[in-house]
Amino acid sequence: MRKLLTLCIFSIFLSFSSCNQEDTSPILVSTEDLLFVGGDKVRISGRLLTNREVLATDHGFLFSTEPSFSGAQTLSLGEKNGPGRFIGESAGFKIGQTYFAKAFAEVNGQRIEGDVVELKTLTPFVNNFSPRYASAGSQMVIEGRNFPEGTKVFFGTQEAQVIQNLFESRLTLRIPAASGQVVVPVRIVIQDQEIILPQPFEYQAGKFTKITEFPGGSRIYDNTFFYNSSGFHVGLGRLRLADPYPLFQRYDPAGNTWAEVSFPGAPRRFAFSSPTYLGGGALETSRDVFQFDRSFWKIQGSTFERLPDLPFNTREAMAVDWKGKLYLFGGRDGAGSVVREYNPTTGNWTLKRNAPFDMSGTTATFSFGDRVFVLSSSGAIWEYLPQEDEWRRDSTYPGSTGEGYPFAQVIGNKAYMGLYRRTQEIWELNLETGIWKSKNQIIGLPQSINMGSFVFGEAIYILRAAEESVNGALPMELYKFEPDAI
After folding, report:
1. 99-102 — which CB contacts under 8 Å span 24+ positions?
2. Residues 352 and 300 in one domain
3. What is the reported pLDDT for 15?
4. Which of 46, 170, 402, 471 could form a disulfide with 420 if both were Cys (CB 3.0 to 4.6 A apart)?
5. Is there a single domain that holds both residue 259 and residue 317?
6. Are residues 454 and 423 in the same domain?
7. Element spanning 7, H or E
8. Element (H or E) spanning 428, and its range?
9. Which domain holds residue 439?
């Protein structure tokens, strides 16, 4: 409409001037269209109108926050030879601010100005951002509109690197290092305004610290372990490429000390153990030929009381204490799906419902509430309900399952599991919501396997050993894992 009105007025002038000399034709300037208005940028068009040759020594646009154009900002486009349309783009405007604009031209030392248009720069707006949980160094994308150049993003107090600002509507940035907080607000700072995203960002957490090494620089394999009020006990099994290891080493996490604990039974490999019971296992007399040990022991701190022998052979079974009873899950030698219950009141062993999959040392177990969970070598998570004697499929481990032999521990309502052989991943499973979160990867030699773990306070301690095929003086190492630390 503005352009049409200007052209009509100019046509009247032309009609009038056609009766006069050509050099008296009027020269007009029109402020035409707002082609683009962003947060800090404006693109606008104007037109120099006349029916004769004209040379403008300068032309462009004026912008001001005042209709009087006091303190106006000038966008100079330089010399213009001849009438016609011109377009200018200017930046540096304040977001959400009302401005007045008009075109101008300098002809024969006289400034000719067009009519005034009013505009308002836009305010930024956020539609979405992703991811909301990631590690430092990962990329995040924030989608919205009106993100001018110079937009800054902060994670708490840490400024992120803005990698790309696409069409002022899509910010790609690199997540900065954490400043010590796991959950932080994300702030977008644009000029003197700040937008705080509605949901905070959560850093992928998990801090590993090497605490100590296994005494004597030894590496043992096919061992057993348990944790009780006396400490973390690791032993039996065999030394690397050598003889059986006939005793235990006890670690005190409060004092960070080791102590030797004798075992009154015979040496063995592949024994089962829980905080309360230990038994079974075998010695390999020749390749794949085993001499089974049926002795069964009650653990009291760091002492062992012998109970009646097991009525069955067992090798590499998983043991779980549950409400005063002992449950054995799986094992080798055809017992992969077998579940047994031991009642200490009667001293009887009872066969329970078979599991729908095989279990052994390649799996991991943990209990929560009225359920026992089994993390299989394939990553399938099953839950067993002892009272109902029922199996149910629960979830699937989202990480790499490598070559089996994971670990699993519980702190509060969250289970931490992973570290399959040939992997370094740990994942957190909220046992009430079913939500998975990846944790930071473990440090140390990648070719390591789990030899035992326990919970002390709000941390998990994991004993790791280099695989037996790895040469060198590489003692077993004990790591402290703090799931929510950075």
Report:
1. 99/42, 99/63, 99/64, 99/65, 100/63, 100/64, 100/65, 100/66, 100/67, 100/69, 101/31, 101/34, 101/42, 101/44, 101/61, 101/62, 101/63, 102/31, 102/61, 102/62, 102/69
2. yes
3. 43
4. 402
5. yes
6. yes
7. helix 2-17
8. strand 426-430
9. 207-482
Between CA 297 and CA 150 the distance in angstroms is: 70
Res 13: pLDDT:
41
Q: Do 119 and 34 form a contact (C-beta atoms < 8 A)?
A: yes
CATH number of residue 130's parent domain:
2.60.40.10
Q: How far is the C-alpha of 17 from the C-alpha of 28, rounded, in Å? A: 13
The reply to whether 393 and 339 lie within a common domain is yes
pLDDT at position 23: 58
CB-CB contact of 137 with 160 (8 Å) = no
Can you give the pLDDT at residue 287? 87
The strand pairing partners of 159, in sequence order, are 154
Residues of the chain with pLDDT under 70: 1-24
Pairing state between β 110-113 and 73-81: unpaired
And the tokens for 321? 């204490």
User: Strands (DSSP E) along 175-331, which ranges?
Assistant: 183-184, 186-190, 193-196, 201-203, 207-213, 220-221, 224-228, 231-235, 238-239, 248-252, 257-261, 272-273, 277-279, 282-286, 289-292, 296-300, 303-307, 318-322, 325-329
My answer on whether 162 and 241 are in the same domain is no
Q: What span, in angstroms and rounded, lies between the C-alpha atoms of 369 and 174? A: 41
Closest CA to 6 of 54, 47, 55: 47
- Contact between 384 and 390 under an 8 Å Cβ cutoff? The reply is yes
Quick one: tokens of 385? Answer: 């309900």
Question: CA-based Rg of the chain, rounded to a whole angstrom?
Answer: 38
- Do 281 and 326 share a domain, yes or no? yes
Q: Which amino acid is at 305?
A: E
DSSP, res 123: P
159: tokens are: 């400024």
Both 421 and 301 in a single domain?
A: yes
* Cα–Cα distance for residue pair 270/220, rounded to 1 Å: 12
Residues 258 and 407 in one domain: yes
Residue closest to 400 by CA, chosen among 385, 415, 422, 381: 422
CB 201 within 8 A of CB 132: yes
Find out whether 95 and 122 touch, Cβ atoms under 8 Å: yes
Say if CB 214 and CB 475 are below 8 A apart. yes
pLDDT of the residue at 11: 44
**C-alpha–C-alpha distance, residues 173 and 357, integer Å:** 45
For residue 263, give the amino acid letter.
F
Q: Which helix (H) or strand (E) holds 370?
A: none
Q: Which two tokens stand for residue 135?
A: 């590690």
Instruction: Supply the pTM of this predicted model.
Output: 0.85
Amino acid identity of residue 122, one-letter, is L
